[in-house]
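Whether sequence alone determines local backbone shape is best considered at the level of individual chains. Part of our work consisted of pairing the sequence of a single chain with a tokenised description of its backbone. This step matters because it turns folding into a mapping between discrete strings. For completeness, the protein is quoted in full, as a sequence line and a line of structure tokens:

_____
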Amino acid sequence: MLPQETLEAVSRGLREAFGVTGHEDISRLTGGHTASLIFRLVVHGSPYLMKIITRAEDPSQHYASMRAAAEAGLAPRVWYTDPENRISITDFVTAAPLPLSEALVRLACLLRTLHALPPFARAPFNTTCTYLLHTWPVLDVFVQTFQAANILPKAERDEFFARYVELAAVYPYKDAEMVASHNDLFKPDNILFDGHKIWLIDWEAAFLNDRYADLAVVANQVVTNEAEESVFLSQYFGAAPDPYQQARFHLMQQLSHLFYTMSFLMLGCAGQPVDCTKPVPEFRDYQRRYWAGDFDMTDKDMKVVYGRVHWERLLHNVRQPRYQEALRIVSRRKRP
């Protein structure tokens, strides 16, 4: 089951972590959104999770963030890491359903703890919606590729770029405000509930980022109305959010809709125009079902639906008075 070339490194890991060279049981876990090899091991009668990263990268930063999170009680205990062979062993979490009503409060508190950790390292590449706020050549290429592909009809494509320019010009993205962030919580399978405690897993994308990036993508899944948003943000900030905090959060949500529109349409449509006449689910209903695990996001057609759901949500939101008010509040604070 294990790749032949990993056997020696895995044996060494088991010896260093548990004083054994073999396991009592092993099964490969599939599903989720990772190309890594994931296994459930049983050692001394207890289950553990072993992850072997298959990409040719240095996971040292990933492992450092994961250990910091584990020590803070946010991630499962880390028993072993081997950066050279890209192997990690952690406690195994048997997941139970997490009701949205409970997730609303508990995830806000979890993010508050995460963002208060000592700063993580910077990322070599940003894979979150704040990617759109950078000024670097690779962003220009990505955006130009999306524009040239004519994936959206011209009128919608024009609006996409108008909103992108508008948000990028107003939203503050300052190094001094960066916090330790997970950055991959738009995937509900990275949030595990064991019946008592919530754990965050898969720390490969963890790096310094704007706090509102984590907040926005989690809220997209668990917040269904403005009253719940108030509860969510109050739990996070420890007090009722002020108008600036609400405005900045709202704008980051729109950036997330832009980012996932562009990313998932490009991933799903293979450069072909999208048929925007086909109906898509309402955003809140879709997110509820996504949270419940109803969708296979490895499917290309589902990627297109996911991108279009975010696009329709953005179109709705930017036509509401709150959007213009948020732009005004944040722009006024941003000016020197």
